[in-house]
Design goal:
Blueprint: H1 2-24, E1 26-29, E2 33-36, E3 45-49, E4 54-61, E5 66-71, E6 74-79, E7 83-87, E8 90-93, H2 98-101, E9 105-106, H3 138-146, E10 151-152, E11 171-172, E12 179-183, E13 186-191, E14 196-200
Parallel strand pairs: 4-9, 10-12
Antiparallel strand pairs: 1-4, 1-7, 2-3, 4-5, 5-6, 7-8, 11-12, 12-13, 13-14
Amino acid sequence: MTLKRNLFLAGAIVVGSAGLAQADMVATAINDLNVRAGPGPQYPSIGIATRGSQAMLDGCIQGSRWCRVDVNVVRGWVYAQYLQVEQGGSTVVVEQHQSDLGVPVVTYETTASVAPEPAPGDELLGPVGSVDAVTPPETVTTYVQTNPAQTVRLGGDVVVGASVPADVTFQEIPDYQYRYVRINDRPVLVDPGSRRIVYVYN
């Protein structure tokens, strides 16, 4: 009887610890971002994590910037740079504190049909900043559609507010203050002063 009772208590402690660990793995989306079917911008978007959404963080791939989350009734992959958690009374970005936070390591099997994700050290879109999103006029949309630019491959999620590296060249749009560039096969409009994305075409 005593042995059974001790086993029951041990089981209760394990379950309780797992619950606490899960509570610690609640992250918040810093900005609107795509939830993808796999860990990389080459995978299709299966949903959106809106800014401020609470996401249950399953874990991140070792040596990668991609993490698996449950958010807004969707389970998929998001970029760790756009997730933040509470740690010791302050807010920290998951990408910079994976080991400190004790984020679990998860794996993902890739197939030959998709391109590999950018490796650590590859050029990335910069941190998301606060910008005023724009709604381009029809003339600009027509110009973008009829003047396709060569795509630039960058790590990270293509979202409004992300900054574009300094060596990426923008295409001018006649009589319009913003510039145009194609990132990971997605046309975007960029503020040439701040180099931040102000609009993403679907």
